[in-house]
Amino acid sequence: MSQGGATVCEAANPQDQGWAWMVLLAAVLLQGLTLGFPSCIGVFFTDLQHEFQASNSETSWFPSIMVAVLYGGGPLCSILVKRFGCRFAVMLGGLLSGVGMVSSSFCKSISQLYLTAGLITGLGSCFSFQAGVTVLGYYFVRWRTLVNAMASTGVSLGFTLWPLLSQYLLDEMGWRNTFLIFGGILLNCCVCGAIMRPVQLASGSPLQSPKPAEEPGRRAEGAQLSNGASSPHPKLQQQTRRTACFQMLQKYLAFDIFCQNKGYQIYTIGVTWMMMGFALPHVYLVPYAIQNGVEERRAALLISIIGFINIFIRPLTGLLSGHRVFTGRRIYLFSLAVLLCGLSNFICVISAEFSMLIIYCVILSIAMSGIGALTFQVLMDVVEMDRFSSALGLFTILESITLLIGPPLTGFLVDITRDFHYVFYNSSFFLISAALFMMLSFCALEKKNKLKEASKVPLDNSSRYQYNEMPTEPQSESQSPPAVVYITSI
Question: Where is the Major facilitator superfamily (MFS) profile domain (predicted)?
Answer without folding.
Answer: 20-452
